[in-house]
Each structure stands twice: as structure tokens, then as C-alpha cells.
User: Fold this.
Amino acid sequence: MEHFDVVIVGAGLSGIGAAFHLQERCPGKSYAILEGRDAIGGTWDLFRYPGIRSDSDMHTLGYSFKPWLEAKAIADGPSIRKYVNETADENEIRDNIRFNHLVQDAAWSTEHATWTVTSFNKATNETVQYRCNFLYMCSGYYNYDEAYTPEFEGIEDFSGTVVHPQFWPEDLDYSGKKVVVIGSGATAMTIVPAMADKVESITMLQRSPTYVVSRPAEDKMANTFRKYLPEKLAYGLTRFKNVELGRIMYNRTRTQPAKVKKIILDMVRKELKPDYDVDKHFTPSYNPWDQRLCLVPDSDLFKAINSGKAIVVTEKIDSITSHGIKLESGEVLPADIIVTATGLNMKVLGGATLSVDGKPVDFPSKFSYKGMMYSDVPNLVQTFGYINASWTLRADINSEFVCRLLNRMDELGVRQATPIIRQEDHNMPAKPWVDDFSAGYMQRMLHLFPKQSDRDPWRNTQNYALDKKLIRKAPLEDGTLIFGNSQQEASLKKKHPPAPGEAQDRTAA
Assistant:
């Protein structure tokens, strides 16, 4: 069985970034990346629907250490996939990836201070095990095997094609077809303008509206910086600018929701024709950022609507007929293709089961330490990005923490670091892991995730500026993260094993 200092799970944005940081900050550590698919890129390799793109700018979705050099800041999926692959190849990370290795189980042994990671090699149909001292979960939160599709009465009678964006067929020909896209999120708003020029008609059918903001695909200031300044300086300035603008925007949605709502809706009205019913189709019942805002680059969705190539229908579905979708009003939307852009399913730790010293880890009963470790679970960090900012901002800062933690463990001569609930925290309230966010995909699955609380270090702040203080700068020895299980103790136990029945001293766990 191969042994590594660190096993990283996932070769997407987070995993490749984690490997870079590990190589740079902990050069003596051995590592392997276990990737369940046969390619680098994670989400950006999995999703292949028309128009696939980021709704975060690449100066914040990109890595802190690798400048984004393309003119478009709102990048398409292939460009992002290329960027992640370039990062892996430039830093010789690819050789450390074990592709087609789907992690199924991880078992911690305090005696050996190791995780035994069990994966299924999909290429050989074999079960493979690895051992490591530290487990870094970078597998995201999507269920790659199963998307979310509500039950639609009569869908089995539909004579056309039904496709979910997560499983887009490469050979799907939609030229001259009548298409209905069910959904009102970022995926639907990407697909509709991307398909509009080729189809006979395309309708975005939504049960309720979403806030939509248009933004130029190119960041003119970023491109100007890059023209006159060194690449890294230009990238850093743009990154800082965009982080701060995003922070200010989000804070205003919390303190002045009505004002921000009016600003957004006024912008939408300027984009569309004067007689367009913005109140019905683009005015949600909730406040901005209670769910994620949808970004459309260069007003592409609005242009498709204004041209008549795309329409938005806001109404509930009654049933699916053989040739379309019947609405509760009785109207039928004809369709050759139905796209169910109805969302995703979430998974905790990519669906892997965990145990500590033979006891299964019950994640809903655990508390989240700084949004990345879990109470009573040693030597494990998970990356889960921000819901109100770019994923990679959190991924980068988590990787910095992991490297700082590994180096400190070496300095102390210990093999284990575990978040333990302090005496004063025993009665702290349990709150959802992600709070104040009403999106359906979150609400459906949050009961399976660890909890957070109302005090540090048990908060999952979703606040990048605050996390820089709590994660990057705060002392590691905080009375909650307990270090122990030293090499010296392990050696003594080997030399002087306890007599039968004699209780062994517990190391800090």
C-alpha cells in the first residue's frame, strides 16, 4: 500500500491549486491527487452545455499565483479548463494525479496517525488503498452522477428529447428545433442566448424570477493594467479591485436590500423594451443575494429577448404532453427539446464515508471549524467555496492554512491536529452550515452537512475579508485546534507496549 504525506481528493480548480501550494510551501511533503474522472478540471470538464461559462470574473476565480491573461474576464468553460490544465502542466502536477480513482471511504487510525483511503479504480474495476497522514478534500459539492430534476407529470409521454445540462449529449442537434429550457438560474440564462441563433424558438420557462445583472465580458481596467504594468502586478490590482467591489455590493444587499433591489431592476428595465413586464419576469420575491445573483455577459440574454429569438415565461407547470409543456393556465408550450436546467444535487465530501478509530463520522452532528475542518475529525480539511464570491478565493486561503498547519505540526514534532469543542462551547447553538441563503439546491441538502455556530472558530463566515484574519493570520494554537500524537510517544509505545488490559494513555485527538 502506497503511503503519502498528503492525499488530495479531486483534480479540479481546488485540487490543482492545493497541489501548487503544497509544492511551494511544503516542498518536502509527498502527495498524490485522487481524481474520480479521467481528466483535470472538475466542474469545468464535466459541464459541456452550450455557452458554458463562469459567472465569476476570472481575476478572482483564477488562482492567486497564476495571472489570468485573456481579454475576457467572464470566461467560457473551455478557456477555464485550459487554464487549469496549464497550471497543472507548468508545475508538473499531472504526474501526481491518479485518474479514475473514485474515493469511497477513508478511515483514520490514531495509533498509526494515518488515513487509509479506499478508492475504486474505474479503469481497472479494482479497489485500491492508499495511506496518508493528512487528507485534503477538494472534490467540491456537486453530485457528478446525479443531477436534480423534479417530478414532472407526463414526462414519460414526451415524444421529443429531454436533456439535463449536467449530461449534455455531444451529438445533440438543436438546429431549427423548438426548445423549452426549464429553470431560472445561471445555467438556464447561459443556455438560452447561446442556443438562440440556431433554434426555431427558445423559451426560458421559470416558476419564479431571479435577479439578473449584466456586466461586460471584458474588464477594461484589467486590460489597461496589463498593457502598462507587469503581469503579476496588473493581476493583483485587478483581483483586489474586484474583491472589494464584490464585498461592497454584497454588504449593501445586507444593509440596504430595498435600495439595491431598485438599482438592479432599474438596470434591467434599461436593457429591455419599454413595454416589457420586468415586474413579472425579473422581479424575485426575495431580496438580492438571498440567492445567488445571475450574471449575463454583454447583456446577451437581454439581447436575445429584445430580438425576439428568446422569450421568458413565468408560470408553473401543470404537466408534460407528448409535444410540449402544459402550463397551469392551460397554455401549451410546443417543444422538440426540453432542457431541465433545474439544478444540482450536493454531496458531502464527494460521497465518501469517513470513520475515526472505527467509529463512523456522522457529519450532521459535527461542528465546522472555520468552515473547513470538523470537530473530532483529525488531519482533514475540506474546501467549500463562497456562495457570494469566487470559489477560488476560499480554495487559495484554505491551501495556505493546510500548508501552515503541516509545517507547524513538523515544528512541534506531532502527527495529529484535531478541532475539539471547548468546555465553554458545549452548549453553543447549532446553525446551518451556510446561513442566510435560500437557494433550493442548498436547502434540500443542508441537513446532511455539519453545523456552524455563532462564535469563532465555529463560524463558516462566507466573508473573504474576515476569513483572511481568521484563517490566514490567526494563531493555529487557539485552544480549539489541539496538537498531539507525537513521534516520540509513538516510539515509546512501540518499545514499551502496555500489558494486556492496561489502559493506554489517550493522545490529544
User: Anything to note?
Assistant: Residues 499-509 have pLDDT under 50 and may be disordered. The two ends are 25 Å apart (CA to CA).
